[in-house]
Amino acid sequence: MRSKRRLRWAAIPVAALLSVVLAGCTQQQLQGWLPTEPGTTNNVDRVIGLWVTSWIVLLAVGVITWALIIWAIVVYRRRKGQTGLPAQLRYNMPIEIFYTIVPLILVLGFFAFTARDQAAIEEPYADPEVKIQVFGKQWAWDFNYVDEDVYYAGVQGQADPDDDNGELVESEIPVLYLPVGKTVEIQLESRDVIHSFWVIDFLYKKDMLPGKTNYMYVTPEREGTFSGKCAELCGEYHSMMLFNVKVVSQQEYDDYIQSLRDSGNEGQLGHEYDRNQNLPGIGTPAHEEE
Fold it and tell me: Are the beta carbons of 121 and 217 closer than 8 angstroms?
């Protein structure tokens, strides 16, 4: 009779798990509620795979852990008529080895797969087809299209007076154009304080540090407009430091580059516009030049 009760209690978490699995999952659930779609860039599917696999493993660990806790509560509960303390055990060597080795394997596994995917995402392109230099500044963005020798100078977005929620005027938000299917190297610089370049749908962000150059490597694989923002608290108007990324066809990209030329935006915006001019390696301090 006791063995049947144990089986009954053990079956509850198993049945609950099966119910969830059999209920089916939406596409959003299958990708772990990440704010993107598969195939947006060459790196997105890799990040989704790592994220979802990690949650499946952790969910399995959670189910097993809770099942064992419930089983121990039910099986070893005090029964009617029992008195005194139950038999006391000092240790159980197999169990202690189990709960030491298994977490260690999990941690090493998460580390190994994360390091593998990060190394692949951070692998530089030997000969990128498009080179972009991005300057973060309080509280806007400058974009240099390096090979085309044109630039876009961003200004801080302004709140829409007709919007009670304080949304910015969409037409004034800086826009970065990228051609679909091309390998892109993005050089990240800061003009003042620490910023962070984050295109939400690309599932990757990179800090922009004063006096240091960072790089991102990405191949956009789906046309569309994607929201971007600064992901590092950088001052009073940090929440308004937004931008958009437009992934377009090669013809649309070429037309946009030509529109910048026609507007007189030829050349490159350099470090002469940085607010920090006394960082190590930037130049000779003023008192030494006199």
Answer: yes
What's the pLDDT band for 22 if we cut at 50, 70, 90?
very low
CB atoms within 10 A of CB 75: 12
> Of 83-87, 158-162, 183-187, which gets the smallest average pLDDT?
158-162
30-34 own/partner pairs: CB under 8 Å, 24+ apart:
34/203
Report how far residue 74's alpha carbon sits from residue 246's, in angstroms, rounded to the nearest whole number: 58
Q: How far apart are CA 168 and CA 160, in angstroms?
A: 5
Q: Tell me, what amino acid is at 87? A: A
Tell me, rounded to whole angstroms, the distance of Cα 277 from its chain centroid.
31
pLDDT of 14 reads: 58
- Tell me how many degrees the CA angle 132-133-135 measures, rounded to the nearest 5: 140
| Mean local confidence (pLDDT), 273-278 | 82
Length of the chain, in residues: 290
Distance CA 248, CA 256 (A): 10
Please tell me the distance from the alpha carbon of residue 183 to that of residue 27, in angstroms, as a whole number.
28
**Cβ neighbours of 222 (radius 10 Å):** 16
Listed in order, strand segments (DSSP E) in the chain are 130-137, 140-145, 150-153, 175-179, 184-190, 195-199, 204-208, 214-218, 224-230, 242-248
b/e 145-160 (16+ beta carbons within 10 angstroms → b)? beebebbbebebbeee
Cβ atoms of residues 140 and 155 within 8 Å: yes
Tokens of 131: 């080179």
First to last CA, the chain: 96
Compute the distance between CA of residue 4 and CA of residue 149 in angstroms, rounded to an integer: 77
Interatomic CA distance for residues 82 and 185, integer angstroms: 72
- Output the pTM of the full model: 0.80
How many Cβ atoms from other residues are within 10 Å of residue 71's Cβ? 15
